Structure to design on (201 residues):
């Protein structure tokens, strides 16, 4: 099992570290998942607070489609409901979910205002990045809201990704693949920075 998915687990660990270094997520949370066939590869609980996002491939969990651990070191993240529901509902058009606590985007999450598209590079995600209804982190309600919000955006996912904000929580990206998901959260975070700094220009 581990040999079959080792390279993707390595890539997930590497992107998690890059996200942490670029302030696209923090010690409090964030998760990355990729579906390959009948398994989901996902970062573990406490990836930030325990491992400081310095994960090894063996820390990335191999889960079945019921979110049960098959292999890997660490606990299953409490946010697995969102990841599994998105990947199980939209696979194979979507194969990756990237969730981050991106620093500038969190400002918009905290005041519950959408992030306007300020750049050509973010226009592909819509005129603004909006919100799902408020629901506590880690709940089935949040998962249900994310599935409902992503469904009308499936054409964006097929091209690259769709992005939604969770009030007082963070950014969720549903993407065609892992690289597209990372690219999307990075673009949206830069857009959030430009939106904030534009008030000073």
């Amino acid at each position: 099992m581990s040999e079959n998915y080792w390279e993707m687990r390595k890539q997930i660990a590497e992107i998690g570290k890059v996200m942490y270094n670029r302030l696209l997520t923090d010690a409090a949370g964030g998760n990355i998942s990729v579906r390959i066939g009948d398994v989901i590869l996902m970062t573990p609980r406490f990836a930030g607070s325990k491992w400081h996002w310095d994960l090894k491939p063996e820390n990335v969990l191999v889960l079945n489609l019921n979110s049960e651990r098959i292999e890997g070191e660490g606990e299953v993240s409490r946010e697995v409901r969102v990841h599994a529901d998105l990947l199980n509902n939209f696979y194979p058009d979507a194969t990756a979910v990237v969730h981050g606590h991106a620093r500038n985007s969190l400002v918009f999450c905290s005041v519950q205002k959408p992030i306007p598209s300020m750049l050509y590079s973010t226009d592909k995600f819509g005129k603004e990045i909006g919100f799902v209804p408020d629901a506590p982190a880690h709940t089935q309600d949040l998962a249900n809201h994310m599935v409902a919000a992503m469904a009308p955006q499936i054409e964006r996912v097929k091209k690259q990704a769709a992005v939604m904000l969770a009030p007082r929580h963070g950014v969720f990206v549903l993407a065609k693949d892992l690289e597209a998901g990372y690219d999307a959260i990075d673009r949206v975070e830069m857009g959030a920075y430009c939106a904030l700094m534009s008030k000073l220009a």
